[in-house]
Specification:
single chain, about 725 residues, alpha+beta, 11-stranded mixed beta sheet, 5-stranded antiparallel beta sheet, 23 helices, about 35% helix
């Protein structure tokens, strides 16, 4: 049987005709399978559900558990099945995303399949795997689901945001703050233009490079903390095994030996009591850092306090790691059992690290103290200590004494970190440190967040939310004013005119339109830049205070919008002859109701849709807008405009040659048509319409009528002057 053929894959990077979120739209040709729905292929449903039993959770059109399975029994086609299989493969790989659609086109056997794409590369792989799985089930051939999911899971682990960064992005999303991934790593922009902030895991654009360098120098950190009265363990840098022992004798046993500039507890040896232990620890610690520090051993458990913006956001405690003998297994075999705990692993998603003796010299030293090796077989029931301070992953946030939290916050402030992981050792975190000779041992930049998100015991903490609240004030959404413009005619002129008026208002504006990419009045790139890529570059620019984007139908259909929501959405008109058959859009009505409406769908609740009252297809979009609607019309008596104004709402129109802004029966004269150069003295009707749309859009942004007047009356003259200068230069 012929394989399902992929005809086209469209990566929709932003809001599109299907969903507000990024998605992949694949056009498939199922060929002769059009005549073979699922209910007439022998054994198909049984094979599919045995491979993917979790498909029972897919509700499909029934809206209830098992809904998709019911569709399989009734009979459905490969496009629809592939949609659900692709989504489930992504879900099993750790990339949940429930949105999917499958729709017939006007060509028999050709379907559009759309699935949510949190990462394009992973979703592409899932689509191909989904097709192969469906074909294997149809043809009764073997398919290795486990290997496929494992391959996709590896892609998710290597390509997608780590859980620490993802929790911050998710918290921003809950606040409706947009995000843009800036690299293949964990560098992410939150917000747009001049309102943006940047994060890299738990570091932000407020994290000082100097502070980060200080935090890596443990000895310098201790010196600074001590000067501010923060309790620290006494100690010093040493330069040889003999010097390490001398320092230990001066400080008093037991001691800790550790690298002065390593992170994540690597090469840290605690509770050392003999010269042999100290000298052995020195050599191992030197392999992990550039120098070695010997300091007083503090009794108690290690704790990690997460300080965000000067406040305690979460706290976790570590505990010793033991194995318990069974009289038969070696310590190495017992450790293998410990490592089977699903919480242990090397990936960032694992809150606990595996115990691997080859890379845990502290554990090997601990075994030597007990007269044991990895091959020793401890008696049944005997507890063998491996690490005195194991993974810090037990939540104790609610137990932290206020003075301890204040001391940790002071330590972060002294080092200069806006977000810090403060490590301290204490027997009881609910008591002040000075009562128990507790002390702060490290202050870390870029702390991991997983221990607080997925503690091995206790309550997960909303640390991503704490970081977002640190970066953005409660009323701050990270958004700049965005004006999106679509329609059949006039988009470029309106976009340039709106950008010019915003520029006059004092904002540095970015413009991506059919004439090019502009920053302020400077043309940065010539040619058609009414596309996702150019608009995306504008949103990345930290100098941009407002943005104007032209969005053509092809761009919306093939790329999606570059922004998730906008302050103002303009729809100019829909040409009755418009269609895009190559995208299965056969007439103007489909263009309006499926494509152009996208611009209105993304208007913010406190935003405005600017719509043509004299175009029925455009005027009908008013009901789709979450925000306000301002109609514009050349004819002040247009029925839609008249009814709109009767309701006390806003409109822009022409009466007796004057451009009028009206709110109900209150009117403001903006200009005279004959004074606006691009209208040709009022003779060019379509340009009058363009001016009205621009006036409405800039009014929606709160720009005054005087500034709008200046913008529309200067716009044509500036172009004429530029052309005159070019002609003079050519004839000189």
């Amino acid at each position: 049987m012929k394989n399902i053929e992929f005809l086209r894959i469209l990566p929709l990077h932003g809001p599109n005709i299907w969903t507000y979120r990024p998605a992949l739209e694949v056009w498939i040709d199922i060929g002769e399978l059009e005549d073979f729905p699922s209910n007439i292929i022998p054994g198909f449903n049984e094979r599919l559900t045995s491979w993917l039993p979790s498909l029972v959770e897919h509700r499909c059109s029934y809206g209830e558990r098992g809904g998709f399975l019911q569709r399989l029994k009734e009979g459905t086609w490969p496009g629809h099945i592939m949609e659900h299989v692709t989504l489930e493969l992504q879900n099993l790989a750790g990339l949940p995303g429930g949105f999917g659609k499958a729709r017939e086109t006007s060509v028999r056997g050709v379907y559009k399949v759309v699935v949510r794409a949190r990462h394009e590369q992973v979703t592409r792989a899932a689509l191909y795997a989904g097709r192969d799985l469906v074909m294997a089930a149809i043809e009764d051939k073997p398919f290795d689901v486990e290997a496929t999911v494992e391959k996709l899971r590896d892609m998710v682990d290597s390509l997608c945001l780590g859980p620490s960064t993802a929790c911050i992005v998710d918290a921003a999303d809950e606040r409706r703050i947009p995000s843009i991934r800036l690299s293949e790593g964990n560098l992410v922009q939150l917000g747009h233009g001049c309102k943006q902030r940047r994060i890299w895991t738990a570091e932000t654009d407020q994290t000082s490079a100097i502070a980060e360098s200080i935090s890596r120098d443990k000895d310098l950190t201790k010196t600074l903390l001590q000067s501010c009265g923060v309790a620290i363990p006494e100690g010093r840098i040493v330069d040889s095994p003999a010097d390490a022992w001398e320092a230990a004798e001066d400080i008093g046993l037991p001691v800790v030996v550790k690298p002065s500039d390593a992170n994540h507890g690597r090469g840290v040896f605690i509770d050392l009591n003999t010269q042999a232990e100290v000298e052995t620890a020195y050599k191992a610690a030197l392999e992990e850092g550039s120098s070695v520090l010997v300091e007083r051993f503090i009794r108690g458990n290690e704790h990690r306090l997460l300080i965000v913006g000067g406040k305690l956001a979460a706290a976790a405690r570590g505990e010793p790691i033991f194995v318990v003998g069974d009289g038969k297994s070696t310590i190495s075999q017992l450790i293998d059992v410990v490592n089977q705990d699903p919480r242990r692993g090397d990936l960032e998603e694992h809150p606990l690290n595996p115990v691997i003796l080859d890379r845990e010299p502290a554990a090997r030293l601990e075994l030597e103290r007990q007269g044991l090796t990895a091959d020793s077989v401890p008696p049944n029931g005997k507890k063998v200590l491996l690490l005195r301070n194991g993974n810090v992953a037990i939540d104790v946030t609610d137990q932290v004494h206020p003075s301890v939290a204040a001391t940790a916050a002071l330590a972060a402030r002294v080092v200069g970190l806006d977000i810090a992981g403060v490590d301290l050792v204490a027997e009881d975190i609910s008591r002040p440190l000075d009562e128990q000779r507790g002390a702060i041992v490290e202050v870390n930049a870029g702390p991991g967040l997983l221990m607080h998100l997925k503690p091995s015991e206790g309550t997960p903490r909303p640390v991503g939310q704490a970081i977002v609240e640190h970066l953005f004030k409660p009323e701050d959404t990270g958004r700049i004013p965005i004006v999106g413009i679509t329609g059949t005619h006039g988009k470029t002129t309106i976009a340039r005119l709106v950008a010019r008026i915003i520029d006059l208002s004092g904002k540095h504006v970015g413009l991506a339109c059919g004439d090019g990419l502009y920053l302020g009045q400077r043309l940065v790139e010539k040619g058609n830049r009414a596309n996702w890529g150019a608009a995306h570059r504008v949103l990345l620019n930290r100098a941009v205070e407002a943005a104007v984007f032209e969005n053509g139908s092809v761009s919306i259909l093939s790329e999606g919008l570059a922004y998730d929501r906008c302050q103002v959405g303009v729809v100019t008109n829909i040409d009755p002859a418009d269609s895009l058959p190559e995208y299965d859009i056969d007439n103007a009505e489909q263009l309006a109701t499926k494509v152009k409406r996208t611009q209105v769908d993304v208007v913010l609740p406190d935003g405005v849709a600017v719509l043509n009252a004299e175009d029925p297809l455009v005027a009908d979009m008013a009901g789709l807008c979450d925000g306000e609607v301002i109609f514009f019309a050349v004819d002040s008596q247009a029925p839609v405009m008249t009814e709109h104004l009767k309701q006390g709402k806003r409109g822009v129109f022409v009466r007796n040659g004057d451009v009028i802004q009206a709110t109900g029966d209150k009117e403001v004269r903006v200009s005279t048509v004959t004074a606006i150069p691009i209208t040709g003295g009022g003779a060019v009707g379509f340009q009058i319409e363009n001016v009205l749309a621009a006036v409405a859009a800039t009014w929606a942004l709160g720009i005054t009528a005087d500034l709008i007047r200046a913008g529309i009356e200067l716009f044509g003259t500036e172009q004429a002057e530029e052309q005159g200068k070019k002609r003079k230069a050519q004839t000189a």
